[in-house]
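Z., the sequence and structure:
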Amino acid sequence: MAQFETSAGIEEITGKLSKKQSLTTRQKHWHYPDGRVFGCGPKEIYAQQARDYKRHPRTAAETAQHSRWVAACQEAARIAKDTTHPRYAEMVARHAAQLHGTPDPALGKKRICQFGNFVRAVLVREP
């Protein structure tokens, strides 16, 4: 992905400028589980091209990975939105620990800043 600078008047513009355009701009904002922003990523621009699944269907491995990912996303949404969920406190503690320098055993040295993304990454790697 390319990074870019904007002029003062258009700092907050993100997304596509028209439906026909393939270039998309974004800037990621990293949040604590309670919603407070603690950082922003660089401004990025990238080209999106949709896959034609009729011409190039998923392989068996891609289908299995997709199924694991869908299940992890659904469970992560339940965990992140329900503070009384049995795993919420565990995930918040693990997320905070890996943010402050202690690598998570499921993720290795990789640091994931957004709470929802962290929960999904942990869940998809669990057996």
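DSSP finds three helices and three strands in the chain. The longest strand covers residues 37-47.

Let me know what you think.
H.
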